[in-house]
Amino acid sequence: MNTGTGMDTPAYAPVPCWSDRLELGEGIRWVDGRIVLTDILTGRLLTAPPGDPGRTGPLDVLAQLPVPLGAVAPVGGRPGSWIAAAGTGVCLLEADGTTRWRGRPEDGASPAARMNDGVADPQGRFWAGSMAYDAVDGAGSLYRLDRDGTLTRVLTGITVPNGPAFSADGTVLFLADSARGVIRTYPVDPATGGLGEPSVFTTLDAGSPDGLAVDREGGLWTAVWGRGVVHRYRADGTLDRVVPLPAVQPAGVCLGGDDGRTLYITSARTGLARPGPLDGAVFAVRVEVPGPPTAYYRPVSAS
């Protein structure tokens, strides 16, 4: 099978990529023909080296922050710039290395909190969750950065928010509360970003749902932290497939590659007394249903 990503492998056979072993790999995205991801606790934004078809070398560092870096989204019309869930808020990482904060709503939070996973929606907004460092029950929130730069807390009472992910038309938000083992859906007003009442999409009996990715059939992929697997659910919430990995703590997922049919999965070494040789690795898995293009944050001005 020719994947268009330098890998000939059967569907659903995970292949480790690159030589890095990340402390807490997350926020993985396919952007402009390459993988971009974060190592949260080290504050690094990473990407695959150009022209690395075998994906055997180390990842390149795009940016290094002095605070945890949860996730980024590319900024439309500004090549090399990223909107980032970082530290206690949201900032713009410019191509020249400049950092401009859009807000730090978790400054001074008690218990102390940091930003976690985040993603842009199809309408050009950026969404990101926060969590207490000690994962205190109900201490997390979900924020929305509108295109005009307004940062709003839209949900509270979450423990460890992960995902988020959106349906192709942006009218449904998928959000995992990892510590509680549940993924919920929220109707979204595409014009305003307002959220409706949540519904339970699925609840896991074991492990924690972490990063999320939606495919073109409306299926949902999630990394299952602590169980060494990724799940795919059909659009109705029925479990469709379980893919085992040689890493205990899979964390982030995205669909990419030249044809959108490679599932990339990050993992973590943090918290493991005796990490295995592939804990913290990034994996690639060929799948049948492609994903949509990565959404960009689209500010209404250049400010």
Order of helices and strands: EEEEEEEEEEEEEEEEEEEEEEEE
- Helical proportion? under 10%
Distance between the termini: 46 Å
Total helical segments: 0
Sheet with most strands = 4 strands, antiparallel
Which regions are unreliable across 5 or more consecutive residues at pLDDT < 50?
Answer: 1-9
Average pLDDT level = 93
SS-derived structural category: mainly beta
β-strand percent reads over 45%
Q: Give the tally of β-strands.
A: 24
Q: Order of strands side by side in the largest beta sheet? A: 1-24-23-22
Radius of gyration: 17 Å
Shape, principal axes of CA atoms: globular
Your description of this structure?
By secondary structure, the chain is an all-beta fold. It has strands at residues 15-17, 25-31, 34-39, 44-47, 60-64, 69-74, 82-86, 89-93, 99-103, 113-120, 126-132, 140-145, 151-158, 161-166, 172-177, 182-187, 199-203, 208-214, 220-225, 229-233, 239-244, 250-256, 262-267, 282-286. Strand 18 (208-214) and strand 19 (220-225) form a beta hairpin.
List the helices and strands and how they pair.
Layout: E1 15-17, E2 25-31, E3 34-39, E4 44-47, E5 60-64, E6 69-74, E7 82-86, E8 89-93, E9 99-103, E10 113-120, E11 126-132, E12 140-145, E13 151-158, E14 161-166, E15 172-177, E16 182-187, E17 199-203, E18 208-214, E19 220-225, E20 229-233, E21 239-244, E22 250-256, E23 262-267, E24 282-286
Antiparallel strand pairs: 1-24, 2-3, 3-4, 4-5, 6-7, 7-8, 8-9, 10-11, 11-12, 12-13, 14-15, 15-16, 16-17, 18-19, 19-20, 20-21, 22-23, 23-24
